[in-house]
Amino acid sequence: MNKLTLLCVEDDIEALEDITYLLKRYFYKVYTATNGEMALNSYNDYHPDIILLDINIPKLNGLEVASKIRESNKNTPIIFLTAHSDKDKLLKAINLKVSSYIIKPFKIQELKEIIFKVIKEIDIENCKIQLADGFIWDKDSYELFYENNQIALTKNEILLIKLLLTNRSKFLTVNEILLEICTNNNDSIGNNIVQLISRFKKKIQKQLQNDKFFIENTYGSGYKIK
Q: Which residue range forms the structural domain that includes residue 193?
């Protein structure tokens, strides 16, 4: 079982109990709601990682609930539960960034496959760290991206990013960076940390043809990730 949480919104109590019984095996916590108002309250209270949302629920329908959630949260995966007769309503959900939908009645295996697919997407997304100016760092593969374009990195550049991210809340001095990089790399680069970062910045800006960079330099303090 992972540490993810899920909010299941379904007004059919029997169906809600069946779905909840199944999904409790795969989630750290499963929250439930039987109408739109309860769904929004539960979302605001618990901020679940995934939302399984029936379209036809009382007080506020599923589309209205999803729309209100998207006003402040563009990323939490939403999976719609819908009847065959409601397919036309899914057209209204195009701008709601819906992860998937399931037509009722559905088979348990179908629900599991869609849930696992979304969980995998979340796991992949959680490996990515958003940096300043649109840069993304993949902490598993040690890769740097800008607008889906990978930026080639040297060994020392990788060590530099990892070190600054580990100490993201504070500035590191040249000596602190030098000591850590040399310790991990076993290949002293002398006192050229300033030159290392300067070359790194110029390389990125030349490749991107703009002035964007994600490392901040403050005189007297040192370097940190923006």
A: 129-225
pLDDT digit string, tens, across residues 108-146: 899 999 999 998 888 767 788 878 888 989 888 899 999
Do residues 109 and 151 both lie within one domain?
A: no
Q: How many domains does the chain have?
A: 2
- Does residue 19 sit in the same domain as residue 116? yes
pTM: predicted TM-score of the whole model, two decimal places: 0.60
Cα–Cα distance between 55 and 99 in angstroms, integer?
14
Residue 27 has pLDDT above 60, yes or no: yes
CATH code of the domain covering residue 204: 1.10.10.10
Amino acid at 125: E
Same domain, 201 and 133: yes
CATH number assigned to the domain comprising residue 18: 3.40.50.2300
